[in-house]
Amino acid sequence: MVIIITWLIAGSIDFAAALLLFVSVTKKKPALLLKAIASAALGPAAFSGGGGMAFLGLGFHYLIAFFWTIFYFAFSHLLFPCGAIITNAVFYGLFVWVIMNLVVLPLSKAEPRPFSPIVALVNIFILIVAIGLPCAYAAEHLPGFWFRF
Question: Where are the membrane-spanning stretches (predicted)?
Answer without folding.
Answer: 6-25, 32-56, 62-82, 89-108, 114-139
